[in-house]
């Protein structure tokens, strides 16, 4: 079958042929229709993610959309190695599939599943979000961050604060408050921290952080300085800033009501991830979630792989 194959660690996939999969007990064969490319799917496929455990060669792709033998449309995640989602067929554990509702097409479902799932899971399962709470989203202009704004609104957030590096993109998100920052400017971190003070003065219930780095530290510092009694669950979801490590003074945590947690492959169960995907699809089918897409053919996998993640690259397999 046609497939996008990663031949060795750290290399991008190339088109080739791979044996058709054969399902064993508990597995199902999926006829793949569409697969989106995300940062995590690319890094895992290349063996460069903390959760990567693969022997090469493999078929690239972490999740996707397709049909079962009886024609049922499903989203699927974590195909059984060495198979991935960027091929005509793949195999997955039957429990790792979610039936698609009417009202959402395959390309949209593929594009929205991973970024929206990460936001939903962080908000619901790690932050224990409740309607009426205030949510701050750091890195809101990316695919996951912009979907987090929509999800927070859909789940009943009272107030949404968005922060990020692109002021014009922040403004179109229609949040209650928007603060842009430039960490490369003189005293950029301090300027951002000071700009936050009036916004967080009344307290923030949840922070969804996709960036980490200096901006995350500035937010925690501002929250500590605000001295509110409201507990803030700070959820680290990604490191899009490129800064894996920060210098976090223990005094920030000791002198505040910040609870710092992570949300990812090990901290959210597979069952909760699939529950998040189902919630995302139901919300999208109601027209409450939107995502910009750029479509690619499977034969153009190398171009798709190197494309920007916004709009979300989606590979139409068949």
TrEMBL record:
GO terms (molecular function) for this protein are: oxidoreductase activity
> Locate the Enoyl reductase (ER) domain: which residues?
10-293
Q: Do you know which Pfam families this protein is assigned to?
A: ADH_zinc_N (PF00107)
Which residue ranges does UniProt annotate as crossing the membrane? none
Under the heading InterPro entries, the entry gives: ADH-like_C (IPR013149), ER (IPR020843), GroES-like_sf (IPR011032), NAD(P)-bd_dom_sf (IPR036291), Zn-ADH-like_protein (IPR051397)
Name this protein carries in UniProt: Alcohol dehydrogenase
Species source reads: Paenibacillus chitinolyticus
């Amino acid at each position: 079958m046609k497939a996008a194959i990663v031949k060795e660690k750290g290399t991008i996939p190339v088109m080739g042929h791979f044996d058709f999969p054969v399902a064993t007990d508990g597995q199902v064969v999926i006829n793949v229709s569409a697969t989106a490319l995300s940062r995590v799917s690319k890094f895992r496929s290349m063996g460069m993610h903390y959760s990567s455990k693969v022997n090469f060669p493999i078929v690239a792709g972490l999740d996707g959309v397709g049909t079962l033998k009886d024609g049922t449309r499903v989203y699927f995640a974590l195909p059984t190695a060495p198979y991935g989602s960027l091929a005509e067929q793949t195999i997955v554990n039957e429990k790792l599939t979610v039936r698609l509702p009417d009202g959402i097409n395959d390309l949209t479902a593929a594009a929205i599943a991973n970024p929206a799932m990460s936001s939903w899971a962080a908000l619901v399962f790690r932050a224990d979000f409740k309607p009426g709470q205030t949510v701050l989203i750091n890195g809101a202009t990316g695919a996951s961050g912009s979907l987090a704004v929509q999800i927070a609104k859909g789940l009943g957030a009272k107030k949404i604060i968005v922060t990020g590096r692109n002021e014009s993109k922040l403004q179109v998100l229609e949040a209650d408050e928007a603060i842009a920052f430039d960490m490369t400017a003189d005293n950029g971190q301090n300027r951002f921290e000071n700009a936050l003070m009036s916004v967080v003065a009344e307290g923030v219930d949840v922070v969804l952080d996709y960036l980490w780095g200096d901006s995350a530290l500035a937010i925690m510092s501002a929250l500590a300085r605000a001295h509110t009694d409201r507990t803030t669950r700070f959820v680290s979801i990604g490191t899009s800033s490129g800064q894996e490590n920060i210098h976090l003074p223990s005094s920030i945590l000791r002198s505040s009501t910040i609870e710092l947690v992570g949300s990812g492959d090990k901290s959210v169960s597979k069952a909760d991830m699939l529950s998040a995907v189902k919630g995302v699809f139901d919300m999208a089918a109601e027209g409450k979630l939107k995502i910009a897409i750029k479509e690619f053919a499977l034969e153009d996998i190398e171009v798709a792989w190197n494309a920007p993640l916004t709009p979300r690259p989606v590979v139409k397999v068949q």
